[in-house]
Amino acid sequence: MERKLVVSSSPHIKSPENIQSIMVDVLIALFPVALMAVFLFGFRALITMVIAMVAAMATEAIILRKGSFFGDGSAAVTGLLLAMTLPPAPPWWVVAIGAVVAIAIGKHIYGGLGNNIFNPALVGRAILFVSWGTHLSGSVWLKPVPFGFTADAVSQASPLVTHDASLGDLFIGTVSGSLGETSALALIIGAIWLFYRGHIDWRIPGGYIGIVFIFGLFAGGFSMGLYHVLAGGVLLGALFMATDMVTSPVTANGKLIFGLGCGVITMLIRLFGTMPEGVTFAILLMNGLTPLIDNMTLPKKFGEVKKSA
Amino acid sequence: MSERTFVGGIHPSYFKDYTAGIPIAPARAPSQVIIPLQQNIGAPCEAIVQVGDEVKVGQKIGEPKGFVSAPIHASVSGKVSKIEPFNHSMGTPVMAVFIENDGQDTPFEGMKPNKSLEELTAEEIKAISKEAGLVGLGGATFPTHVKLSPPPDIQIDTVIINGAECEPFLTADHRLMVERAEDVVFGLQAFMKALGATRGIIGVEDNKPDAVSSMRKAVADAGGGYNIEIQPLHTKYPQGAEKMLIKATTGREVPPGALPMAVNVVNQNTGTAIALAEAIKLGKSLYERVVTVTGPGINKPGNFVVRNGTLIRDLIEQCGGLTPDARKLILGGPMMGFAQPTDEIPAIKGTSGVLLLTEEFVKDVPIAPCIKCGKCVEVCPMNLLPNFIGSASEKNVMDLAEKYGAMDCFECGCCTFTCPAKRPLVQWIRIAKGAIAASRKK
Fold this sequence. Notes:
CATH class of chain A: Mainly Alpha
Helix content of chain A: 55-70%
CATH architecture of chain A: Orthogonal Bundle
Strand content of chain B: 15-25%
Shape of chain A: globular
Strand content of chain A: under 5%
CATH topology of chain A: Ammonium transporter fold
Number of domains of chain A: 1
Order of helices and strands of chain A: HHHHHHHHHHHH
Radius of gyration of chain A: 20 Å
Number of strands of chain A: 0
Order of helices and strands of chain B: EEEEEEEEHHEHHEHEHEHEEHEEEHHHHH
Number of strands of chain B: 17
CATH class of the largest domain in chain B: Alpha Beta
Mean pLDDT of chain A: 91
Largest sheet of chain A: none
Largest sheet of chain B: 6 strands, mixed
Distance between the termini of chain B: 50 Å
Shape of chain B: globular
Structural class of chain B: alpha/beta
CATH architecture of the largest domain in chain B: 3-Layer(aba) Sandwich
Distance between the termini of chain A: 62 Å
Low-confidence stretches of chain A: none
Helix content of chain B: 25-40%
Radius of gyration of chain B: 21 Å
Oligomer: heterodimer
Largest interface: A-B, 45 and 68 residues
Number of helices of chain B: 13
C-alpha cells in the first residue's frame, strides 16, 4: 500500500475538551459576576478588570515568548479572578502589579501552568494586601449604586466589619465589598455553569460553605450562619478560588477535606483573628497541603477490600 | 435507561450507525490465506502440515505447544505453499501457514455434529471447545477451554455473556445477537453445563434495544430449564470490560490482580458462545469470525464473516476501498484497538473490527502539562490515579507509578480520552507496567 498510515498508541479517539476550552468556560462562568460588578460599582469596576487581565496576559506572553496573547486562556482567568478580589477602584498600578506578581511569582516561578502550588490570583492579592494594604482595606470600599455608572463614590465599611447588612442585600450583592464577592446570586449562576460543564464537583464548595455555615450557626444562630456564608469572600473563594484545579486535590475524599479545611481556617481567622476576612489565607494555606492531602486519600482500588488487622 | 453499571467511565460518540443496521454477509474467500500460528494469549502453535500438503476447510494445521493455547485450523481448502514468518497485528512477524485456495471449499471430514447438549458431559464440552480452537473473540483471545477448567476448589455459579460491545464503531456482537440469538443462548447453556453453573446472564448495553428484544425472545423460546436472564446495561465505556461487566450484572467486585473465577464467575463473549454452539452442533472449528469493517475512512462499511488469514487489504478492497482522507488503520475498536502500519496483515481470531479513521482523528495535538483537573481520576473504572501514574512514568520513577496503581490498569483508555491536556496517560502507564513487570522478574 502506497499510502502512509499513522500509527499511535490507543485510544484513537479523544474528547474535544482541552485546556483552552476549560479556561473559556471559567471566563463564561465569571461573566455574570463581572456584569454584576459593573452594574453595582460602575465603569471603574470594568477598568480594574481590564487592567488586571491585560497585565496578566502580557506578563504570561512575555515569559512564555509565544505568539498568542490569549494563549491557553489561563492568564486571562487569573487576571480576572484577581480583579474580583480587589476593591472596585484601587489605583491602576496596584492592579497591574498584582497581576504581574500573580503570573510571574504565583505561577511561572514554579514552572508555569500546572506546576504552581498556590492559587496565582490569591498570591497576587496576598502580596498586594501586605504591601499596599491601605489600598485594599479601610475606606476603599464603595457603596454600590445600581445603574449609578457616573455617580460619585461614597465609601462604606465592609459588611464583615459592620455586621448589619440584610441577607437580601448580601444575596443580590447591594453591599460594599470586593468586585466579585458581593453578589451571591451572580456567583451561584456562574458556578452552576461550571458544575454543568463538569469542571468542579460539590465536594470543595460543599465542604467549604457547609463548615462556614456550621461555625456561624454556633457563633450566633441560623441567620449568623447564613450571614457568614453570604458576606465577604466565602462564595467567591469556595466556588472559584478553592476549586482551582491546579492547586486543589484530585481525589474525591481529598477534595472534601480540602474544602472543610478552607472553611475552618476562614472562620478561625474571622472569629478569632485580627483581620475581618480570612478567605485568601485559608485557601493559600490549604493549597500548600494539597499534595499531602492527595497522598493521604488515595482511593480504594476497584475490588480492593480493606485489610483487616 | 438501565441503572446497571459501574462507577467511572466515559460517554464517547459511538459511531455505531455506520454498520449497526447492516446484516452480516460472508466476505469473499481470498485466493490465498496467510494463517499466523500465534492467535491467542499464551503459547503459540506448531505447524502440523508441510509445504505441498493438501488441506481442507476446518482441518487442524497448528497444534498448541502448551495448555494455555488453542489449535489453529485451515480456513480454505487447497495446497500449503509456504510456512514462514509474516506480519502480525501485534507487531513482530510470526510463523504463518500460507494456503493457496483451490476454490472448492472442501470441508474436513473430521467436522461432524456432536451429540445433543443433553447427552454431552462437561468434560466432552471442554474437549470440543479445545479441539475447535475456541478463544475469547472479544479481542483478548484467551483460550476458552482454560476458562472452562477452573481449579477444583472453585465452583463457578454464574456465566456471563458479554454483549455490551462498548467499543465505539464495532457492531459484530450486536448483529450476532440480532441474527443468531438462538445460538448465543445455546452456547451459554453449553458453558453453564461445562462449568456446572446455575445462573446465566447476558449483558447488553441499552443502546441495542433490538438485540435486547431478540435475546429475550430466544431465551423465552429456549428449552432445557436453564436459568438465564437478559440484563440491559447502561451504555457507558468500558461497560464490556470483564470486571465492570461482572460488577454491573452481579454486583460482585473482582479483587485487584485476580481473575473473574475469584468471584465464581466466568465471562464469555457473544461470538465465542456462537462458536461453541457451532462446534457442538456442526463440529465446526473456529476458522472464520464476524468482523466489522467500518469508520469514516472506508467507502462501504459492513459486517462480514471473514476467513482466518484473510489479508486486511482484501477486506478493504471488498468494502469499496479507502476514502482519500483515510489515515489510520486500526484492528479492534478505537479505544483499545491496535493501529497498524500496513494493510498486509492477516485477520485472525482476535480481529473484531477493521476501523479506518480519517485526517480529523489523527491530528497531532501538543501535550500540555497536567493541570490536575482530576478528570482522569473521576473516569478511571479501577479507581486509580492515572495523572500521577502518568507523570511518574514520564519521569521514569516507576516505584511511584506502582504506588498509584499502575499494575491494576487494564488500559481501557478513559483517562487519555478525557485528558484536556491531551496527555498520553495510558501510553505512559503501559511503559510503567512493562518496567515494573521487568523489575519484578529480577
